[in-house]
Structure formats: structure tokens, C-alpha cells
Design goal:
It contains eleven helices and 19 strands. α5 (184-198) packs parallel to α7 and α6 packs across α7. The chain has a nine-stranded mixed beta sheet, covered by helices on one side. By secondary structure, it is α/β, with parallel strands linked by helices. GO terms for molecular function: arylsulfatase activity; metal ion binding.
Length: 492
């Protein structure tokens, strides 16, 4: 009863405008790795238990049409840090990428690190008095000179290695060690809570980027056993029980951070943002049955990570900020990862960089009114690489989405995405005028950002086109010798 009264009072204060936004809110960005649009309960997943993420949606705003800027991790991370579409910088594939030397086209090599002259979102917030922190996976350059502490983050704990106890560590920080037997998301939550407690006296920006739910699949046995039993009872194959357990680990991590914010009395002064870097994975790009499992399904969405279909780029977004966001609201406006940069800068009272193009648009109007529209004509993607699909670019202009393949085939797909979320009906053959218009706009955009394009491959060999090669070694990827990762701590 007391909770109902408090919630009713909050709603009244919000509606009357009595509750006002903090001058400089704390910002906590939880950036999950490879979590798909259908991987949590509030996005209609009825298999995995995600009570804390679902509660976050009930207390904030859920976005139905939010997109990762890239179909794989590094491009989206580049876009988020820079406020730009990553095609401007050239980080269009994951660093360091992979290679198919005998395919129809030669794909461009990605820029191998976020340039140091890029003004990151952390660097934009610091002059406004923010303390900045980064925890987890970085993947925007391997050398020490390209790490978060060189890109505006006061506290940096870049963690390498997969999820199970003893398999990961903080790079270059012997003073930061997990507890014995500690799962990685639990350790990342510990570091995040310490950062919040240590910096609560002034505004802070914390980006938490766990490696979960990225493969290799690995979770603690109690959760895995729970989902194995549930899968058997329901006779359900996907999501994989270990993957489901990994999602629940993330849910607990989110809950611990939200609880820590509440315990420090910071709830009304803190914006919590929950999202993912790209769509969910169905199976590894070089899948081998002896070593790999099928991971998840994003149905009704088509495609997966590494594809410009909806399953590869549409991801969850939940934002909780009590003074500004009405609880339980839903926003259907198309939005994208690089919108975070101007949003955070506006709320912080900071300034956008003068000599750096910002492609993002502030989400503040949507946070105030979920039915508002941004004054933006279209969203664009450029993924000129082989992964789970062929090299392609795409554009979404309100109800319409066009995908143009860049592998020399000339293939085009057109969908009325507003009523065909599953991209089941390719209208390119009957909507030639729409196709011509969107192709022209997509091509003009590519020119405007100097997007790097594939080139015809004189070494094209259809018998060898399927081969994956390692860009570092210059040799074929030995997928057949790969072994299955231990699924739980009991299998180590």
C-alpha cells in the first residue's frame, strides 16, 4: 500500500511539473554486448527471467524502434563515443575484423582505433564538471595509447577475457581483481558500485560495457541448470539455456546497480540507460557443430548480428530518469546509438564540440513526450563487410527501409517496415520509384561521409569464396580445430 501511495504521489508531481530535472544528472549507461531486441521479458521474451530490466522499463521509457549504429560491436562503440555515424571515421567492422580473400569483392579494412583527436562523449562532459568512468569491454583500439583513460575517462577498468571465474582480468590494473569464483558481470557490478559510491558528491558519467552476452557461452551452473530444466519441460530449443543464464546474470547486474543508486539517495538525480551494441546472435559466423551452439532467435525479426536486417541492428533501449521520464511510457520514434552523445551533453549543460560533426539528435524531446518526432529525415547504416550476410548499406526513412547489397550483385530489398517488421515482403520489384528515391538518398549520404566501398576482386574464386582468413596472421581461420568453451564453472 505504501508503495502505491508513493507511486501515486510521484505521478502527481510529475504531471503537475512540481518534480524538476536535476541541473546536471548523473548518467549511467549500461551497454550490453550482443543482446538482441527479443532477449528480455519486456520485449516479449517469455523464457528468460529479467525482472530487474522489466522493472526498469516500468519505471522509465521503453523504445520500440531503437537501433544500434552498427551490426557488430566496434562500429556502434565508435558511433556512441563520437556522436557520429562510424562511416565518417572508418570503423565499419569489428576491430580487427576478418577477411574473405576470394569473394566477389574486396572489402575495405576498418580503421583500427578510435582516433585520439575525436572528442568523445566523456571529453565533452568533463568541462561541465563530470567525473567519468569506463568499465568492461572497450574494443576501440588495442594499444595502450587508445584506451579509455586516453579518451577522457578518469577511471578506466578495461576487462579482457570470457565470463567464467578465472578466465578474465582487468588489463594493466593489478590492483583490481575479482573475488575467487566470481562471475564477470558480478565483478563488473562491484566496480560500478564502487565508482558510484566514490563519486556521488559531484555529477558523474559511468559507461558499463560487460562482455556478456557475447559468445563463448558461459554461465554459473545454478542458473544453467534452471534453464536446462525449463527448456526440457517446454521442449524449447532457443534461446540456449546457457545463453538464457547469461541474460539473467546481466539482469542481476542491472538490479545491483539500480539498488546502489537508490541506496546512495541518487535515484532522482540519475539517468539509467540500458541498451545493446548490436542485434542478437543466432550462430557463430564460422559455425562448427562440434564446437558451437545455436544461441538465440530474434523472431519475428529477420536476421542476426552481422546483418542489416532488423535482427542485426534493432536492439532494446530503456531509459529511466524520474524527473523527466514518465513511468511505463513507450516511444516508437526511430532512434540510434549516436543520439546518446547530444542527449547527455544537453542534460549536462555541456557543449558539443565545435569542429566535430555530430550526426546524433538529442532524445530529450522524446523523454518529455514519447509521441514527439525528431526532425530527422532518415537513419543510415554502412556495413561493407562479409559476416552473417553480404556487404551492404541501408536506409530507413520513416515507414520504409531499403537494403542495397555492395557485393556486385546489384541486389536490392525494400520493406514497408512499419507494417512488416519481419521483412517478409520485398517490395523492390513493384515500388521502383521508391527504390530509386531511397537509393539516391543512400548514395548521396555515402558520398557525404566518404564511406569506404568494396572493390571488384580480381582473385574471385567461387570455389574458395566461403573461406575465412585471419587478418592478423594472413592465414585461413582454423575453425575445425576450435573446441567448445566450458559452459559452467563446474566444467572448467
Amino acid at each position: 500500500m505504501a508503495r502505491v501511495i508513493v507511486l501515486s504521489l510521484f505521478t502527481l508531481l510529475w504531471a503537475t511539473g512540481t518534480l524538476s530535472a536535476a541541473d546536471q544528472p548523473n548518467i549511467v549507461l549500461i551497454f550490453i554486448d550482443d543482446m538482441g531486441w527479443k532477449d528480455v521479458g519486456c520485449y516479449d521474451n517469455d523464457f528468460v527471467d529479467t525482472p530487474r530490466i522489466d522493472q526498469l522499463a516500468k519505471e522509465g521509457m521503453k523504445f520500440t524502434d531503437f537501433y544500434a549504429a552498427g551490426a557488430v560491436c566496434s562500429p556502434t562503440r565508435c558511433a556512441l563515443q563520437s556522436g557520429q555515424n562510424q562511416a565518417r571515421i572508418g570503423i565499419t567492422d569489428f576491430i580487427s575484423g576478418h577477411w574473405r580473400p576470394f569473394e566477389r569483392v574486396i572489402t575495405p579494412r576498418p580503421t583500427m582505433a578510435l582516433p585520439l583527436d575525436t572528442v568523445t562523449v566523456a571529453e565533452a562532459l568533463k568541462p561541465a564538471g563530470y567525473t567519468t568512468g569506463y568499465i568492461g569491454k572497450w574494443h576501440l583500439g588495442n594499444g595502450p595509447e587508445f584506451q579509455p583513460d586516453r579518451q577522457g575517462y578518469d577511471f578506466s577498468a578495461v576487462i579482457g577475457g570470457p565470463h567464467l571465474p578465472g578466465k578474465y582480468r582487468v588489463q594493466g590494473r593489478s590492483d583490481l581483481k575479482p573475488k575467487t569464483g566470481q562471475y564477470r558481470t558480478d565483478f563488473e557490478a562491484d566496480l560500478s558500485i564502487d565508482f558510484i559510491r566514490n563519486n556521488k558528491q559531484k555529477p558523474f558519467f559511468l559507461m558499463l560495457s560487460p562482455f556478456a552476452v557475447h559468445i563463448p557461452l558461459g554461465a554459473m551452473s545454478d542458473k544453467v541448470d534452471k534453464y536446462r530444466k525449463k527448456a526440457a519441460d517446454l521442449k524449447q530449443d532457443l534461446p540456449h539455456p546457457v545463453y538464457a543464464a547469461m541474460i539473467e546474470h546481466c539482469d542481476e547486474m542491472v538490479g545491483r546497480i539500480v539498488d546502489a543508486i537508490e541506496a546512495e539517495g541518487l535515484t532522482n538525480e540519475t539517468m539509467v540507460v540500458f541498451t545493446s551494441d548490436n542485434g542478437g546472435l543466432y550462430r557463430r559466423y564460422d559455425y562448427r557443430e562440434h564446437a558451437d551452439d545455436n544461441v538465440s532467435t530474434q523472431a519475428p525479426l529477420k536476421g542476426e548480428k552481422g546483418s542489416l536486417h532488423e535482427g542485426g541492428v534493432r536492439v532494446p533501449l530503456i531509459i529511466k530518469y524520474p524527473p523527466l521520464v514518465k513511468p511505463g511510457t513507450v516511444c516508437k520514434e526511430p532512434t540510434i546509438s549516436y543520439d546518446f552523445y547530444p542527449t547527455f551533453v544537453e542534460l549536462a549543460g555541456a557543449s558539443l564540440p565545435k569542429n566535430q560533426t555530430i550526426d546524433g539528435m538529442s532524445l530529450v524531446p522524446l523523454l518529455k513526450d514519447p509521441d514527439a518526432q525528431l526532425k530527422r529525415s532518415a537513419l543510415y547504416w554502412h556495413y561493407p563487410h562479409y559476416h552473417h550476410d553480404r556487404p551492404a548499406s541501408s536506409i530507413r526513412e520513416r515507414d520504409w527501409k531499403l537494403i542495397e547489397y555492395l557485393d556486385g550483385t546489384g541486389d536490392i530489398e525494400l520493406y514497408q517496415i512499419s507494417n512488416d517488421i519481419g521483412e517478409t515482403n520485398n517490395l523492390a520489384g513493384e515500388k521502383k520509384g521508391r527504390v530509386a528515391d531511397l537509393k539516391q538518398k543512400l548514395n548521396s549520404w555515402r558520398h557525404s561521409v566518404s564511406a569506404r566501398m568494396p572493390l571488384p576482386n580480381p582473385s574471385y574464386d567461387p570455389d574458395k569464396a566461403h573461406e575465412w582468413w585471419n587478418t592478423r596472421s594472413g592465414k585461413p581461420v582454423d575453425s575445425d580445430s576450435r573446441k567448445r568453451f566450458p559452459p559452467t564453472e563446474k566444467d572448467l
